[in-house]
Amino acid sequence: MLHSPRDWQSVLYLLLLPALAAWQWRYGFTWWVYLPMLFLTLGISVVHHNHAHLKMWRSRPLNRVTDIWLSLLQGHPGFVFHATHNANHHRYRHGPRDAARTYRFGGDTNHLVGYLLHPFQATAALYPLFFRWLARLQRRSPGAFRYCLLQYLLVGGLWAGLAYLDWQKWLLFIWTPQLHGLHWLLATNYLQHAHADGGSRMDFARNFEGWLNPLLFNIGLHTAHHLHARAHWSSLPILHARYRGQIHPRLNCGGLVPYMFTTFVLGPLLPRWRSQSLMQTTETS
Questions:
Q1: What is the pLDDT of residue 281?
Q2: What is the spatial distance between Cα 215 and Cα 42, in angstroms, rounded to a whole number?
Q3: Segments in 28-77 forming alpha helices (H)
Q4: Which string of b and e fits 202-213 if b means at least 16 CB within 10 Å?
Q5: Residue 32 burial (CB < 10 Å; 0-12/13-18/19+)?
Q6: With a threshold of 0.85, does the pTM exceed it?
Q7: What are the angstrom distances between the C-alpha of 235 and each of 8, 46, 142, 250?
Q8: 285 vs 283: CA distance, rounded Å
Q9: Phi/psi at 252 (nearest 5 deg)?
Q10: Which end of the chain is least crowded, N or C, by CB within 10 Å?
Q11: DSSP 253
């Protein structure tokens, strides 16, 4: 019933993250369990993102169950992707009308402070979009609106119930990992687009070609994903190879971790590693 056999990896992440959280809830904090759990929050963020573009299952009931499960695991409803990501970011591709374009906040930057702050700045810019979308949904499709509210209620109910059982364990094993995953989800926009050209047909995104890609569902191959938003994540390496030669060489990077180290740590110290903007416009408002 899965759209692709490769989605068993997604199912594994969906089961493994709560299993590790439950194990530590029962037996206590263990760093060699907690660190993989934090990594899995990154994977769950990508699974959530992928599921918003192309549903994981061919079965509507299974997709509904997955909607709810992902919302509970990540601590925010999956339908938020439709208003803020699909209808905004993918529509405008880091251009002047993209509400969360990186150069909107403090100019066209690419540094550590910008990376850390971007999730908070993007949240402030995106939530008005989300509330307007939700108001339109209430008028046009009351049933879908109630389904969205159900996701919010279930997330809030799970938080309240677990915090009532043990608020310290809830903070450590549930809320903090969820915040980690959400920060990474939004900060990834900065990694993928800062200093890219929001007005270009091909140079609007950065691509990471390192070994983390298979573990994170090829999310690093971002240009191909934008150009084929409904393509299954397993097909992105082939699509990326098709477009790679048309993309500015500075936007085809190696591994994510080396990129972050050279750009955010070495860049401020050594001009050789400093990020250079490809923007052809100075629009920042």
A1: 62
A2: 10
A3: 31-53, 60-74
A4: ebbbbbbbeebb
A5: exposed
A6: yes
A7: 15, 15, 36, 23
A8: 6
A9: -105, 100
A10: C
A11: E
Say how many CA atoms lie within 13 Å of 89 toward its Cβ. Answer: 28
Phi then psi for 260, rounded to 5 degrees? -65, -40
Other C-beta atoms within 10 Å of 156: how many? 11
Q: Which two tokens stand for residue 230?
A: 């409904």
- Residue ranges for the chain with pLDDT beneath 70: 281-285
Cβ neighbours for 234, distance < 8 A, ≥ 6 positions apart? 4, 6, 218
34/202 Cα distance (integer angstroms):
39
Taking phi over 0 as left and psi of -120 to 50 as alpha, with beta for the rest, 218 belongs to: left
Total Cβ atoms within 10 A of residue 272: 8
CB 114 within 8 Å of CB 105:
yes
Interatomic CA distance for residues 152 and 76, integer angstroms: 7
Cα separations in angstroms, 155 against 41, 70, 82, 93, 213: 16, 10, 18, 30, 29
**Over the stretch 241-279, which tens digit does the pLDDT of each residue have?**
999 999 999 999 989 999 999 999 999 999 999 999 998
From first CA to last CA, the distance across the chain in angstroms is 46
Q: What is the DSSP string of 91-146?
A: HHTTSTT-TT-GGGTTSS--SHHHHHHHHHHHHHHHHHHHHHHHHHHHHH-HHHHH
Q: Which 8-state DSSP code applies to residue 57? A: B
- Length of the chain in residues, anyone? 285
C-alpha distance from residue 35 to each of 40, 74, 100, 184 (Å): 9, 16, 29, 15
SS3 8: helix
- Residue 59 CA, distance from chain mean position: 24
Q: Are residues 78 and 70 in contact, defined by beta-carbon separation less than 8 angstroms?
A: yes
Q: Is 162 left (phi over 0), alpha (psi -120 to 50) or beta?
A: alpha
State the Cα–Cα distance between residues 98 and 155, nearest whole angstrom.
Answer: 28
For residue 185, give the nearest of 278, 69, 91, 84 by alpha carbon: 84
